[in-house]
Write a structure and sequence with these properties.
- The relative contact order is 0.12.
- The protein is built from 13 helices and no strands.
- The protein is 82% helix and 0% strand.
Length: 345
């Protein structure tokens, strides 16, 4: 009798953790964008490490982690069919890393740190490689030459071998390393944290009963607002950089080894490759990937997991509203803490 109850509890937990990971990949990203929370990709990767750790804790057979990953990918595809193939590949690699690491290494702490490290390094490397493939090495050379040019304008002397692009890349990796360490610590100490904050869940839920309608209204008004591509900060910066670079190389062709024609070539190359990737290659690869996963998946099981999403969405909106009186950085901190307390209670 006790064994049956234990087995049922484990199955329910596995369903819930799988649904939470799928929700974070498919829905949470959009909510984070709506609330303008920075480093969304790093945050989602961190959540994946946390959920994979929880799933490993209740799964004696580590092959279950691969099955869970396939379910999450299918849900992600069904709810976000236009997501680039690289995003699906990142999720697959997180699940694959988890399967290999938790199968080979029995020490929980070491396994979590290694999983978090590999997942974050894959995410960072994928971004660097894609950027290089799209813009070519000329992009990185241009950043270096542009930095030296600006330094000369302000009377600073930089060695010709100075590489600001290398500093940017290393900083990007360091940021991901900090993120890996942060989320691995969460995964390690999460059981203890949940035990210590049992009382807070009831407090937030009571608050939710009083503000339920307001939360629904905010959801409709805020989440639907999405920035157009040309209003996103990163793309404005990139576009401004290209315009400045093209102007300088045209008006002053002797300023560096990078020529006006090289800049134009880089821009046209990027436009063509981005179009081919998002409109042709990525959709084809994603559909092939989806068809391969679908053959080995139970769609009823997927629907059962997806049915938990409305509850998760309400909890996230409630957590954000509950901390509305906090300063922005503290609000983000307590927001994620309360999400974990409520969803994993």
């Amino acid at each position: 009798m006790n064994e049956n109850i234990l087995s049922t509890n484990k199955f329910e937990l596995k369903q819930r953790y799988t649904a939470l990971w799928a929700f974070s990949e498919s829905i949470l990203g959009g909510i984070l964008h709506a609330f303008k929370i920075p480093f969304t990709g790093l945050i989602l990767g961190g959540f994946a490490v946390v959920f994979l750790t929880l799933l490993s804790d209740i799964s004696p057979n580590k092959k279950d982690l691969l099955k869970v990953t396939s379910v999450v990918l299918l849900i992600k595809f069904m709810l976000s069919p236009n997501t680039p193939f690289t995003a699906h590949l990142a999720v697959f690699m997180q699940g694959f890393f988890a399967f290999v690491i938790f199968s080979l290494i029995r020490n929980r702490t070491v396994s979590i740190f290694l999983l978090s490290f590999l997942s974050s390094m894959w995410s960072a490397s994928q971004k660097i490689v894609v950027t290089t493939l799209i813009f070519g090495m000329t992009f990185w050379y241009s950043i270096d030459e542009f930095t030296i040019y600006l330094a000369k304008i302000f009377g600073l002397r930089l060695d010709e071998s100075f590489s600001f692009s290398l500093i940017l890349i290393l900083s990007y990796y360091v940021l991901h390393l900090f993120g890996a360490f942060f989320f691995s610590k969460i995964a390690i100490y999460l059981p203890k944290f949940l035990e210590m904050n049992k009382h807070k869940a009831d407090l937030i839920l009571n608050y939710g009963l009083q503000t339920d309608n307001k939360i629904e209204d905010e959801n409709k008004s805020n989440v639907s607002k999405r920035k157009k591509w040309y209003k996103k900060t990163s793309r404005i910066i990139l576009l401004t950089f290209f315009i400045l670079l093209a102007s300088i190389t045209y008006l002053n062709p002797e300023w560096s080894k990078i020529k006006f024609v090289d800049v134009l070539s880089m821009i046209f190359r990027a436009i063509i490759l981005i179009y081919l990737w998002f409109k042709v290659i990525s959709p084809i690869l994603t559909k092939i990937f989806f068809m391969a996963l679908r053959k080995n998946s139970n769609l009823n099981h997927i629907n059962e997991i997806s049915s938990l999403f409305p509850e998760f969405k309400r909890v996230i909106l409630l957590s954000w509203k509950f901390n509305s009186s906090q300063p922005k950085l503290k609000r983000i901190k307590y927001f994620f803490e309360d999400i974990l307390i409520l969803l994993l209670r």
